[in-house]
Design brief:
With 745 residues, the chain is an alpha+beta fold. Among the domains are: 179 residues, Phosphoribosyl-aminoimidazole Synthetase, Chain A, domain 2 (Alpha-Beta Complex), CATH 3.90.650; 214 residues, Phosphoribosyl-aminoimidazole Synthetase, Chain A, domain 2 (Alpha-Beta Complex), CATH 3.90.650.10. The protein has 25 helices and 27 strands. The chain has a seven-stranded mixed beta sheet with strand order 8-10-7-11-9-12-13. A hairpin with a 2-residue loop joins β2 and β3. α7 packs parallel to α8. The longest helix is centred in the N-terminal third of the chain and has 21 residues. The chain is globular and about 85 Å long. The relative contact order is 0.12.
């Protein structure tokens, strides 16, 4: 009987698995023979876009990776690691789960949360906070409502049960996401920097364990599924969507934390994309070793699973552990205590090859280095071309936009728009208090702030990206995304430290989509260098689009930025709420007569074609530096950045927490709608007490930053240019309830 190893795969099988014909030929060259079906399946997931970054790696290599706080750089481990002092580090990362969420929103989002948390605790860090960045289509559509409800419930159920607070995030709606939502999950954890667990295999003869849950048929070839377009036939890919169990993950976390206190671990890696295949190959390649893996020893949920099914399964809550030989009983004892599988499935070799066996027969024999990112996996040079719309957008002229007669009506309409209105309906489904670390639940701030217990410090964290800006101008729009993240950290009283990114784009083989990607990388590099916030890692998600009637429609290019910052003195965490009647309100930073790409222009006027809003990186940097000093010297008592919805929305958001109001005047030389609703960058609103005023003015003059006295805080009335805009209680009710009304039925 012919062995499985001798049954050569066909080109048709390779293409069905997601490989290209030229890649199949490359594999033949690597192996010196035609691969069998199991080996072809292994290459199909490891050389998928999701795992190999084959169409992005050359540009990713240009991103800045060095910074003053870096301990583990991008690509070195499961997640980035920055130094936060006192012998502690912060491990953090963001990843996408877009395609699974498009088909099965509840499990797609839930397993995205589970996967990103495993990346954190696999390194030996205990997760302390989560964020998420969500994008959906037209909120009026029934399918969008179904997706929103499923995604939000999936995130809430998994995160709440796992016991890690969700401390912030963003939700954005646009028609470009109608078929393909974006679900980007961020997690951060704290680690003793002397106890980092590496994702590297070492020591020939050391046993290899699979720990955690059993392996099933859910999520098979999920990495390959995430590397192709969503189409009308994608429902047949439902087996590629994983199923999560947060209670199992909680047990796995505690077992891992206990194991990290022993000397039994050589290396450990989460089984995320590509499952056993990815962890065995990547750990082997990282250590320049090989492995022999016996698939029949893997605990499975279904009987008679085929080798490729076991290898490609992305069943959740599993990890691969290389154990110090002779310490096997330590691992078994700990995982038995937590009622989890811990099965020895192989051992490390010195061959550099990963060999898979099933019932005594070798079913796969592949060189580890040939499969991994930065090793033998393809690194493609893609063509890119500027789309015609880019120059068309630049022709926008504000003088062609009529000024509304009733600006109060415009302001109230903005407060109720889905992209601006309170996301209360979303975040009330999340537990922000579990773990007792969250410092901003009842003290609203521009970033989520989490207590570092046992120290005088706190962590500030945020996720940001206005994808409308990026679509208008990828380079400038991405610089704005990084700058806004830094601005949010600074406004909360922190010092920006480093970023992780989730790069969501269309088809990389479309030159215009790839042009957007290249522009985003260039913009990210420029801003990160300016703010000294290196890129610690993240992920790339291409193929976010759909094919309707033969036409590919990409989502808005969405390079989501997750940023960590350090608050050196937790007593100086800054909040955004006005504190008392009579305080002066100042605008710090430059303002322009600009409404480009604003929510006001795009939604109220329905004008989609305009460039990115005004932005100057040097001015932005100087403004943020000044705001840091104002907070450090206790010269302001509320700080909030001007972003979506412009100055009017910023003032309302500062008024709502204590139900105060504002009396301000606009600049008579600038259109009133631009002054109130424009989204030109580099601006922050602060409030100043009478006692702080003199020192505030002296500090800002010396800093060279532009300031404008807008007015003062009132008891609850909103007034602009002596026109009564109503009371804050009225605005607050509309703002708080607008989003929920879409989902009531």
């Amino acid at each position: 009987m012919e062995s499985t190893l001798q049954k050569e795969a066909t080109i048709e099988q390779a293409i069905d698995l997601g490989l290209r014909a030229d890649e199949f030929e490359l594999i033949k060259g690597v192996l010196g023979r035609t691969p069998n079906f199991t080996e072809t399946a292994v290459y199909s997931v490891m050389w998928s876009e999701h795992c190999s970054y084959k169409n992005s790696i050359l540009w990713l290599k240009t991103l800045p990776k060095d910074g003053p706080h870096m301990l583990v750089k991008a690509g070195e481990e499961n997640a980035g690691l920055v130094d936060i002092g006192d012998g502690l580090g912060c491990v953090f990362k963001i990843e996408s789960h877009n395609h699974p969420s498009a088909l099965e929103p509840y499990q797609g989002a839930a397993t995205g949360v589970g996967g990103i948390n495993r990346d954190i605790f696999t390194m030996g860090a205990r997760p302390i906070a989560q964020l998420n960045s969500l994008r959906f289509g037209n909120i009026e559509e029934a399918r969008t409502k179904w997706l929103v409800k499923g995604v939000v419930k999936g995130i809430g159920d998994y995160g709440n049960a796992f016991g890690i607070p969700i401390v912030g995030g963003e939700v954005f709606f646009d028609d470009s996401y109608n078929t393909n939502p974006l679900v980007n999950a961020f997690s951060a954890g704290i680690i003793d920097t002397k106890k980092i667990i590496s994702a590297t295999a070492k020591g020939p003869g050391n046993p290899v364990f699979i720990v955690g849950s059993a392996t099933g048929k859910d999520g098979i070839a999920g990495a390959a599924f995430a590397s192709k377009n969503i189409t009308e036939d994608s429902a047949s890919d439902l087996p590629s969507v994983q199923v999560g169990d947060p209670f199992m993950e909680k047990l796995l976390l505690e077992a891992t934390m206990e194991l990290s206190e022993t000397d039994a671990i050589v290396g450990m890696q989460d089984m995320g994309a590509a499952g056993i295949t990815c962890s065995t190959c990547e750990m082997s390649a990282a250590g320049n070793v090989g492995m022999e893996i016996y698939l029949d020893k893997v605990p499975t949920r279904q009987d008679n699973m085929l080798p490729f099914e076991i290898l490609l399964s992305e069943s959740q809550e599993r990890m691969l552990v290389v154990v110090q030989k002779g310490k096997e009983s330590v691992v078994k004892r700990i995982f038995d205590k937590w009622d989890l599988h811990a099965e020895e499935i192989g051992h490390v070799t010195d061959t550099g090859r990963v060999r898979y066996y099933m019932d005594g027969e070798m079913v796969g024999d592949v060189p580890a280095e040939s499969l991994v990112l930065g090793g033998g996996a393809p690194q493609n040079v893609r063509e890119y071309a500027e789309p015609a719309y880019y120059q068309e957008y630049k022709k926008f002229n504000i003088s062609h936009v009529p000024q509304p007669e009733n600006l109060k009506e415009v302001g109230y309409a903005l407060l109720q728009m889905p992209n601006i209105a309170s996301k209360r309906w979303v975040y009330e489904q999340y537990d922000s208090m579990v773990g007792t670390r969250t410092m901003t639940t009842n003290r609203p701030s521009d970033a989520g702030v989490v207590n570092i217990k046992g120290t005088n410090k706190a962590l500030a964290m945020t996720v940001d990206c206005n994808s409308r800006y990026v679509n208008a101008d990828p380079e400038v729009g991405t610089m704005i995304a990084v700058s806004e993240a830094a601005r949010n950290i600074v406004c909360a009283g922190g010092i920006p430290s480093a970023i992780t990114n989730c790069l969501n784009f269309g088809n990389p083989y479309n030159p215009e989509c790839y042009w957007q990607f290249v522009g985003a990388i260039k913009g990210m590099s420029a801003a990160c260098l300016k703010f000294e916030t290196p890129v610690t890692g993240g992920n790339v998600s291409f193929y976010n689009q759909t094919s309707m009637n033969g036409v590919e429609v990409p989502v808005f290019p969405t390079p989501t930025i997750g940023m960590i910052g350090l608050v050196e003195d937790k007593e100086k965490v800054m909040t955004l709420d006005f504190k008392q009647k009579g305080d002066l309100i100042f605008l710090v930073g430059e303002y322009q007569e600009d409404i480009a790409s604003s929510e006001y222009l795009a939604t109220y006027h329905g004008i989609k074609a305009s460039p990115a809003p005004y932005f100057d990186l040097e001015q932005e940097f100087n403004m943020q530096h000044a705001v840091k000093g104002l907070i450090e010297h206790n010269l302001v008592n509320a700080v909030h950045d001007v972003s979506d919805g412009g100055l009017f929305v910023t003032l309302v958001e500062m008024s709502m927490p204590r139900e105060l109001g504002f009396d301000v005047v606009t600049d008579s030389e600038i259109r009133e709608d631009a002054f109130l609703f424009g989204e030109g960058q580099g601006r922050v609103v602060v409030s100043v007490t009478e006692e702080q005023e003199e020192s505030f003015l002296e500090f800002t003059v010396n800093s060279g930053v532009n300031i404008t006295l807008l007015g003062h805080v009132t008891k609850g009335k909103m007034q602009i240019d002596e026109e009564h805009f109503g009371f804050i209680t009225e605005a607050k009710h509309l703002y708080d309830t607008a989003l929920g009304k879409y989902f009531e039925n």
